[in-house]
Design a protein that fits this description.
3 strands; three-stranded antiparallel β-sheet; 2 domains; mainly alpha; DNA polymerase, domain 1; 339 residues; 14 helices; hpI Integrase, Chain A
């Protein structure tokens, strides 16, 4: 059997290609229904899978999928690199699950098209004795995301060097915007009179209008007055300030570089864009903001996603526990026996 080695190719205005008719067709279908970043992520996941398997789609079987999982769990870079988050050497379980979801979606499409008869990605392993659901292929532990302590947040903002950077971090730390949402802000999206920002590039293509801390508009005014190049991109608010790309829209890598420099100067071990977002909603919940309001601010499609901030808000849990124990104290005597 001929070894298949996918080659990821991109061209402006077109869906990515991998050098196989069925894969390229699926990516064109995906490009018609998902945002560009999602299409790129799926193309990369498929490239990794078929590089490891070495077969074309119709030749893939369940044994290939199981072998792929095993290969993904092998130590990386000779076993010299260990993740600090969980002490493991292979790829994170969440990454493997995402790649399997992409492969599953591909074969669901091929089955719907009538060119494939069965789904090679099993939904589960052998069913458990006491469960109607089988054991998952990959167990991904659910961990709470890290957030910044108040002192860390202050240290980070103090380490920022420009008004542009302060404006961007304020949108994430005090309004909970995603990195892509910050970078996608246009002049027409800003509503200073209402102190709101229109989000047109939200996750999944969803739009929303969110209130923003007045501090953002202070930094924004200073940035536009003193720092932004006059010949910069006419639509996007945040652009590169110097260098060969001066005036062009700031990229995700550029924003990550800004935060990396601020972290280093502030002496912080962590402070990613998404951690700033998590910090924002945790503090809003601790301040008494309802879950429904946080859901609207965050742009979550499902309230269950927002419930995460109940667990991050230690004050909320402690208050609930104290209130419950106050009630229980009335039915217990001093010796701990039920009266």
């Amino acid at each position: 059997m001929e070894l298949f080695v996918p080659v990821l190719a991109r061209s402006r205005g077109a869906a990515p290609e991998l050098g196989d008719a069925l894969l390229d067709e699926y990516l064109r279908f995906t490009a018609a229904r998902l945002r560009p970043n999602s299409v790129t992520a799926q193309a990369f996941d498929l490239k990794v899978f078929f590089t490891v398997v070495g077969k074309r789609p119709l030749a893939v079987g369940t044994a290939d999928v199981l072998a792929f999982i095993e290969a993904q769990r092998q130590p990386r870079r000779g076993g010299n690199v260990v993740r600090l988050s969980d002490g493991e050497q292979g790829l994170a379980a969440s990454t493997i699950k995402r790649r399997l979801a992409t492969v599953t979606s591909l074969f669901d499409y091929l089955i719907a098209r009538g060119v494939c008869e069965r789904q090679p990605v099993p939904r589960s392993i052998t069913p458990r004795t006491r469960s109607l659901r089988g054991a998952p292929l990959v167990r991904a532990p659910k961990r709470l995301p890290r957030i910044l302590a108040p002192g860390e947040a202050v240290a980070l903002t103090n380490a920022l060097r420009t008004q542009r950077d302060l404006a961007m971090v304020t949108l994430m730390l005090r309004a909970g915007l995603r990195r892509c949402e910050v970078l996608g802000v246009r002049f027409t999206d800003i509503q200073p009179g209402d102190q709101r920002v229109f989000i047109c590039a939200g996750k999944g293509g969803h739009e929303r209008i969110v209130p923003v801390d007045p501090l953002f508009f202070t930094h924004l005014h200073a940035y536009l007055s003193l720092e932004r190049p006059r010949d910069g991109d006419g639509e996007r608010v945040f652009v590169v300030l110097k260098g060969p790309n001066r005036g062009r829209p700031l990229t995700a890598a550029g924003l990550d570089e800004v935060l990396a420099g601020a972290r280093r100067r502030a002496g912080l071990a962590h402070a990613t864009c998404h951690e700033l977002r998590h910090t924002c909603f945790t503090r809003l919940r601790e301040a008494g903001m309802s879950l429904e309001a946080i859901q609207a601010q965050a742009g979550h499609a499902n309230l269950d996603t927002t419930r995460l901030y109940l667990h991050l808000s230690n004050d909320w849990l402690a208050d609930q526990y104290r209130d419950a124990m106050t009630v229980l104290a009335d039915i217990y005597d001093n010796n701990g026996a039920v009266s």
